């Protein structure tokens, strides 16, 4: 009986250690997101790859082959384990356990623009809360060549597995800086020659916006919009005309519309 109890205790201890490790780990799930992570992430940042043990598709086979070529641990697990780790997300039979995402500095964002020999173009997200919105915004930001995204440390969504999944790999390409105070950061950006634009009901028609030059675009919170302390720092504001019954857009949709206007106006630089 003593031996049985020791075995049980060891098993419980192992499970506690494993659970603790998972609590300190971020997860990327879904085939596109995992593929992008395997292709662009360094080996030290990827801890393990989990694969649903009853799947044998070509897509899964290719992902497993890539993971093994990078000498990563590949663990075959039941679907229920993936459901648990992804919080019932659409994992598509594969997940990667990674070290928590690291954040860039403001200087890093300027370096991205400098390396491309372009005027800086940043997004500032004012207390965005929905990880799906952040992921979608990152996907569009990558498409239009945004040099970096700035988010606040508190009362806002950060880089999570849901953001990674929604971004379909853009999280590996768009740098994100997390700052303590957005208003103070905007003042620093102004000192470095950036023009700061936001949205407001009485702003100019966004279709007339010229975003050439050193530019930062502020996107407000899903429900409250741009906070008063940040709003008063805008150099100019824009509005998106609407003729339907609903007079507001989802934050990621509005951000996409504005980013593409910026992209169009900057093409002549």
UniProtKB/TrEMBL annotation:
InterPro entries: Alpha/beta_knot_MTases, Ribosomal_eL30-like_sf, rRNA_MeTrfase_TrmH, SpoU_MeTrfase, SpoU_subst-bd, tRNA_m1G_MTases_N
Protein's organism: Lacticaseibacillus saniviri JCM 17471 = DSM 24301
Pfam families, per database record: SpoU_methylase, SpoU_sub_bind
Protein name: TrmH family tRNA rRNA methyltransferase
GO molecular function: RNA binding; RNA methyltransferase activity
Gene Ontology annotations of biological process type: methylation; RNA processing
Region (Disordered): 1-22
Domain of life assignment: Bacteria
Amino acid composition bias (Basic and acidic residues), ranges on this chain: 1-19
SUPFAM superfamilies: alpha/beta knot, L30e-like
Family: Belongs to the class IV-like SAM-binding methyltransferase superfamily. RNA methyltransferase TrmH family.
Assigned GO CC terms: cytosol
Residue ranges of every copy of the RNA 2-O ribose methyltransferase substrate binding domain listed in the record: 27-104
Entry keyword set: Methyltransferase, Transferase
């Amino acid at each position: 009986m003593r031996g049985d109890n020791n075995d049980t205790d060891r098993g419980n201890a192992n499970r506690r250690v494993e659970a603790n490790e998972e609590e300190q780990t971020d997860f990327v799930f879904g085939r596109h997101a995992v593929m992008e992570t395997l292709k662009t992430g360094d080996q030290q940042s990827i801890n393990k790859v989990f694969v649903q043990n009853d799947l044998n598709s070509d897509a899964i086979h290719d992902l497993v082959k890539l993971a093994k070529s990078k000498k990563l641990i590949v663990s075959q697990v039941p679907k229920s384990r993936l459901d648990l780790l992804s919080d019932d997300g659409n994992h598509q039979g594969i997940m990667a356990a990674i070290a928590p995402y690291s954040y860039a500095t403001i200087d890093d964002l300027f370096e991205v623009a400098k390396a491309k020999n372009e005027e800086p173009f940043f997004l500032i997200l004012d207390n965005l809360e929905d990880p799906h919105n952040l992921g979608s915004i990152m996907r569009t930001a990558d498409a239009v060549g945004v040099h970096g995204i700035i988010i606040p440390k508190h009362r806002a969504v950060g880089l999570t597995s849901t953001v990674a999944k929604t971004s379909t790999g853009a999280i590996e390409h768009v740098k994100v800086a997390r700052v303590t105070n957005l208003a103070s950061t905007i003042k620093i950006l102004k000192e470095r020659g950036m023009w700061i634009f936001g949205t407001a009901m009485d702003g100019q028609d966004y279709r007339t916006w010229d975003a050439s030059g050193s530019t930062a675009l502020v996107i407000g919170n899903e429900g409250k919009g741009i906070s008063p302390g940040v709003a008063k720092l805008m150099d100019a504001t824009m509005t998106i005309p609407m003729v339907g019954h609903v007079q507001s857009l989802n934050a990621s949709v509005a951000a996409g519309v504005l980013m593409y206007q910026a992209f169009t106006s900057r093409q002549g630089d």
